[in-house]
Design goal:
The complex is a heterodimer of chains A (about 800) and B (about 350). With about 800 residues, chain A is of the alpha+beta class. In chain A, the strands form 6 sheets. In chain A, strands 5-6-7-2-13-12 form a 6-stranded mixed sheet, sandwiched between helices. A 6-stranded mixed sheet of chain A has the order 8-15-14-11-9-10. Chain A has a 5-stranded mixed sheet with strand order 22-21-20-23-24. Chain A is globular. About 20% of the residues of chain A have low confidence. By secondary structure, chain B is of the alpha/beta class. In chain B, strands 1, 2, 7, 8, 9, 10, 11, 12, 13 and 14 form a 10-stranded mixed sheet that branches. Chain B has a two-stranded antiparallel ribbon with strand order 3-4. The longest helix of chain B has 27 residues. Chain B is globular, with a radius of gyration of 21 Å. Chain B starts with 13 loop residues before the first strand and ends with a helix. The chains are: A alpha+beta (about 800), B alpha/beta (about 350). Chains A and B meet through loops of A and loops of B.
Chain lengths: ~800, ~350
């Protein structure tokens, strides 16, 4: 019976077989941290968390004479000390010395008898400004193991959003792999394993071909593909000619990097409706042209840059290996005006992205894996020739965190990614955006590009020219986003509540805020209308809510659509008055100005089912935009006339209703309302398109959870469209991300004892569904989400 | 001078320290435990054969079950929800064919070269030359046997190979071949202090195999990129660990030289017994130094020493590696006897 080893995928094999001593196929990053990092602590941290990234403890085993596909097998001799190493930079430990050191680390291949990754802690680096010292980490991993996204997995597991030092777990799960397989048996099993693997590949290819075919049935897609192919072959029916950045690799590599302001790049890209990536491609092409102009140009009038694109589907997001294809981007040299060149790049890349070329390329890259294993090594040996005919260089981009992140309490200051050089390519660029800065790091073969400083200067100049042409002022002191405050358990004063106002003002109503609202409450705060948007009126709103609390109308407003929630108290005033809700609806059509929130008490609960329906319906607007709504009570009936605030005269408040149970339907609804009222969450989540999220609480009978409980949130660009309690099995099916933990873990998170990301990386909470990598760009959003959860009171 | 390991937390109950000493020690410990029982034992510190016995006991196998497994070969252990089966001599002596073959070829080739060169050595010290060549050729085999069966046995039968999951806390010692450190594999502590490396992330089967790798005979075991050999090489009996773990420590060991004051001399018992007597004297003396030292340093600690009767000729002459039932029974009986004697001494001491 065959084993369950993972076989290297088609693109993984490409990187595995095309590696030569002079072109190591490693990817990774050089990252620089504030202060002096302790090597022992770093090793202990990685050792305590490496089990969350199983591929990092596996090595490749292949049957002798290539009689089977290379296969991932757990390394019984895995030892962290073989992978985390320390180098001390000799004085003067400046950037040049660092580049020299990094160049030598880049130029070596990894030991194939071990898991294919290494981290070097480089200490002794000169600090900047007030800092005496900095620490650099050089991380490299073989490209056959992971693609760009998966490569950062290890660091995702290690990084924190808090400058506080993480707690290193004293115990970790036992690593107890079996011995390496007996080679005779392994070889025999290889045949069976490879047969299955090829069958799966054929199935996948058939699926992709069908997809491609169905795409081609649409005339618009056919046209796009035709346009892409035309772009691709136009004037270039013969192979491309080499540029001076191409040649025979020497194996002596180095890196050179430049750093730019993300604000500037955003301003530049807006001039040509381009993407950040287009801007960086234009800069790279500009630098290449300038570099080539001083040398034999060979008549080549454009640079062709290969851009890796992820073709990872949702079902594959937890898998390792490469799920990438490539798109070629041609950048003309004859367009001298930088903005016009940017426009051309933008147009070309848009056409390429919209075409089905990446799918086709994936099919082509899969073909060699269908050949007998013995032939694949030779076949991939020819790949460099094909690449030399196809493109001049690579450029890839990675989006890191938009806010500062920390490793062992040391702030990450700079990060420079690197990518392997294909044979015949003298440079390859990696663009990384982090904390308001964008770095372009170029890996250089010194045998082909003997003076890297020249190219570095060309990149700088090309960028300046583009910026000046775009008339974007230099950003002298780029303002990185402030670091989030360390998470501490506290009753969080709610930010001003944002409430959507209806566009067409229909029924004027008076809404009033009790005086108690003046005092900031632990949860709900006075709401401020920021963005007006119409709110759909659910049918249940027809039932008028009774306002028992005499209210003060600060601003008469008109309400057309409002949402209602049951009477669980979202907040309590210090006097114990259930503020319940806030609904701010300004008069008139100008809804941009903040308006004090009138609040209506809602002493009588709506039937839960009705409330749930209302909440689940969310707030889709007539214009398709969703509207964030604070916990609200709708009033369509006449309400109390305006009256001056008179807290002393206020009648005794009704008894506070029972708090909702954690992860119950009521709690979910309150959570949704807090989410939708949180400006911080909205600001942090404008880019959230990752789908829905579910929290699962494992059964804890001692705490009232006889069975596991789950809440589901349908999140989209800062808005929670739906929140509800549901069975765990349903949560696992319907949510894009499912985070599970036991009662104590959730309590630690909700009480602020542990940051949510730390809880995930240390295994206190586990990501049952979804990829940590996909969550990475949204960590700030996730943090705000948990902050919202903390504001929702609960019983128990 | 403080020798106790401050990082370890003292527990109520008794710490049991089990020595190495091949199969003979394994049977002896079984006899001792048959008398003592395991009820009060909160931790076991085991080395080599003591590690095997300790791991079986700590994982929930009873002494009677293990003895039955020796006799009947295959016995059901409820705690394991499976059978244990000691595979006789193969449990310890699984020949490493490739090393035996490599060493055989190299020695044979060296011998041939020596014989071919012999006519040219007429005026030389031929014996010295032969010895030189013989020793210099011993470089291609790290050992001739593999203790992989022991590893396989534990890997197969234990419900969990995590030290933390054992019923009784277990500490298994081994010696790092290249760096001379003592490793103490366990389920709780992970630190390095004064040449001792406590590790809580090594599986039981690997630790036991490392601890039993008698140098020269068994190939060393690679753990975390270091090769480990028998734990007794660095420190005979890791009493310091036991003393740190409990106020009452029971030490069971077989390093007892024969005391022959009358009658037949060991001289007449053959070279192997002379060698054995010498080794036991060295080890016994080494243990005595620590014993006295600990008695001075920790007068309040109650240390119970269980060792064979020095005049027990049958025990002394019994082979160190034996899988014969009669030898097993004899040694187990010696263990029982030694335990009873120790208890009697203790009873007398307690008054």
């Amino acid at each position: 019976m065959a084993d369950n080893y993972d076989v290297l995928g088609p693109v993984d094999c490409a990187f595995y077989y095309t590696e030569r001593p002079e072109t190591p196929m490693n990817i990774g990053a050089l990252s620089i941290y504030a202060g002096k990092m302790q090597f022992k602590e770093l090793t202990a941290l990685i050792d305590s968390r490496i089990h969350n990234a199983p591929r990092y403890r596996q090595r490749i085993v292949q049957a002798p004479l290539h009689m089977g596909q290379p296969t991932w097998v757990e390394d019984p001799d895995f030892y962290i000390g073989n992978h985390v190493k320390r180098v001390t930079l000799a004085p003067p430990a400046n950037q040049d010395a660092l580049r020299d050191l990094v160049g030598s680390l880049l130029s070596s291949t990894l030991d194939r008898q071990k898991p294919l990754w290494e981290v070097y802690l480089i200490d002794g680096l000169q600090g900047e400004g007030a800092e005496k010292e900095r620490t650099a980490l050089f991380f490299k991993v073989h490209h056959c193991m992971v693609d760009g996204l998966a490569a950062v997995e290890l660091f995702t597991l290690l990084m924190d959003f808090s400058p506080e030092k993480p707690v290193i777990e004293p115990r970790k799960p036992l690593y107890d792999p079996p011995r390496l397989p007996d080679m005779t048996r392994f070889t025999l099993d290889s045949w069976q394993r490879d047969f299955k693997h090829r069958l799966a590949l054929l199935g996948k290819m058939a699926e992709e071909t069908t997809r491609l075919g169905s795409l081609m049935t649409h005339s618009s897609q056919r046209l796009k593909t035709l346009v892409a192919v035309t772009h691709f072959i136009n004037g270039n029916l013969r192979p491309i000619r080499k540029l001076p950045i191409n040649g025979k690799n020497s194996g002596r590599q180095t890196m050179m990097w430049n750093e730019f302001s993300l604000n500037e790049i955003h301003a530049i890209r807006q001039k040509a409706r381009a993407s950040v990536n287009d801007v960086m491609l234009t800069v790279l092409a500009g630098a290449i042209e300038k570099y080539c102009q001083r040398r034999d140009f060979n008549g080549q009038n454009f640079a062709r840059i290969l851009m890796p694109v992820s073709i990872r589907e949702d079902a594959e997001k937890d898998q390792y290996g490469n799920r990438i294809s490539v798109l070629p981007i041609d950048i003309p040299f004859d367009i001298k005006e930088p903005i016009k060149r940017l426009e051309a790049v933008s147009k070309f890349s848009a056409v390429m992205k919209e075409s089905s070329l990446s799918l086709t390329m994936d099919l082509v890259l899969t073909l060699p894996s269908l050949m007998p294993s013995q032939m694949q090594s030779s076949l991939w040996g020819l790949a460099p020739v094909a690449f030399a005919l196809l493109a001049h260089t690579w450029c890839t981009n990675v989006m890191a965190s938009p806010i500062p992140i920390y490793l062992l309490g040391h702030e990450l200051k700079h990060v420079y990614g690197f990518f392997p050089l294909n044979p015949t390519m003298g440079i390859a660029a990696v663009v990384v955006s982090y904390n308001g800065r964008v770095t372009m790091n170029v890996v250089i073969d010194k045998g082909i590009v003997p003076n890297p400083a020249e190219l570095e200067e060309e990149v700088r100049q090309a960028y300046q020219e583009l910026r000046q042409a775009a008339k974007v002022p230099a950003d002298p002191e780029p303002e990185p986003e402030p670091a989030p405050a360390p998470v501490v358990a506290q009753p969080v004063a709610a930010p001003p509540v944002t409430v959507a106002a209806p566009a067409p003002v229909a029924t004027p109503v008076a809404v009033a805020a009790p005086a108690a609202v003046e005092t900031p409450a632990p949860v709900a705060a006075p709401a401020v209308v920021e963005t007006p948007a119409p709110v759909e009126t659910p049918a249940a709103v027809e039932t008028p809510a009774v306002v028992e609390t005499p209210a003060v109308v600060e601003t008469p407003v008109a309400v057309e659509h409002v949402a209602l929630v049951p009477d669980h108290p979202v907040s309590h005033s210090p006097a114990g008055v259930p503020e319940g809700v806030g609904l701010a609806l300004p008069t008139g059509s100008d809804h941009s100005a903040p308006v004090p929130v009138p609040v209506l008490a809602a002493p009588h609960p709506l039937p839960e089912a009705v409330a749930a329906v209302i909440a689940m319906d969310s707030t889709p607007s007539t214009n398709g935009k969703s509207a964030p709504v604070e916990t609200v009570v709708a009033v369509t009936a006449p309400v109390a006339p305006p009256a001056p605030p008179a807290p002393a005269e206020q009648p005794a408040p009704p008894a506070a209703p029972a708090l909702p149970k954690l992860f119950s339907q009521d709690w979910a609804l309150a959570f949704r309302e807090v989410i939708n009222s949180s400006a911080d969450y909205r600001n942090a989540s404008t880019g959230w398109t990752a789908g829905s999220l579910a929290f699962v609480m494992e059964a804890a009978p001692r705490h009232g959870f006889a069975t596991p409980a789950a809440v589901f949130m349908d999140l989209d660009r800062g808005n929670c469209k739906l929140a509800r309690a549901l069975p765990v099995t349903e949560a696992l099916q319907s949510a894009s991300f499912v985070i599970q933990g036991d009662y104590n873990a959730w309590m630690d998170v909700l009480k602020g004892k542990i940051a949510p990301v730390t809880a995930l990386t240390t295994g206190k909470l586990s990501l049952k569904k979804g990829s940590m990598l996909r969550l990475m760009p949204y960590t700030r959003s996730a943090g705000e989400l948990v902050k919202c959860a903390r504001r929702v009171p609960y019983s128990g | 001078m403080r020798r106790e390991i401050p990082q370890l937390h003292k527990q109520p109950g008794t710490a049991l320290v089990l020595s190495g000493g091949a199969t003979k020690a394994f049977y002896f410990h079984l006899g001792v435990l048959r008398v003592l029982g395991v009820q009060d034992i909160s931790s076991i510190v085991g080395t080599s054969a003591g590690a095997i016995a300790g791991a079986l006991i700590a994982s929930g196998a009873t002494v009677e079950t293990i003895i039955a497994a020796l006799e009947e070969k295959e016995v059901y252990v409820p705690r394991y929800e499976g059978y244990i089966r000691f595979v006789g001599s193969r449990l310890m002596f699984k020949p490493s064919a490739k090393y035996i073959a490599a060493q055989g070829l190299q020695t044979g080739f060296t011998a041939l070269r020596f014989l071919a060169a012999l006519p040219l050595m007429l005026n030389q010290d031929v014996v010295a030359e032969a010895l030189d060549r013989l020793f210099l050729s011993q470089r291609c085999a790290p050992g001739f046997f593999s203790a992989s069966e022991i590893e396989g046995l534990f890997r197969k039968v234990l419900p969990s190979n995590d030290f933390a999951d054992l019923d009784i806390d277990l500490y298994v010692t081994a010696t790092a071949l290249d760096t001379h450190e003592r490793a103490v594999f366990n389920g709780q502590y992970h630190f390095e202090d004064k040449g001792t490396h406590f590790m809580n992330d090594v599986p039981v089967h690997k630790a036991v195999r490392a601890s039993t790798s008698l140098p020269g005979m068994f190939e060393p075991v690679k753990i975390k990129d270091k090769y480990y050999i028998d734990g007794e090489v660095k420190r005979s009996l890791s009493m310091d660990v036991g003393i740190a773990l409990a106020d009452r420590v029971v030490v069971s060991h077989t390093y007892q030289p024969l005391l022959q004051t009358t009658g037949r001399s060991i001289h007449d018992m053959g070279w192997l017994n002379i060698f054995k007597q010498s080794i036991h004297m060295v080890l016994h003396e080494r243990i005595a130094i620590w014993r006295d030292l600990y008695a001075q340093e920790y007068p309040t600690k109650e240390v119970v020493w269980i060792e064979p009767d020095p005049e027990d000729m049958d025990f002394f002459l019994a082979p160190e590696f034996s899988f014969r039932p009669e030898v097993q029974k004899l040694i187990i009986r010696s263990g029982e006897l030694a335990a009873r004697q120790a208890l009697e001494r203790l009873a007398i001491k307690e008054g």
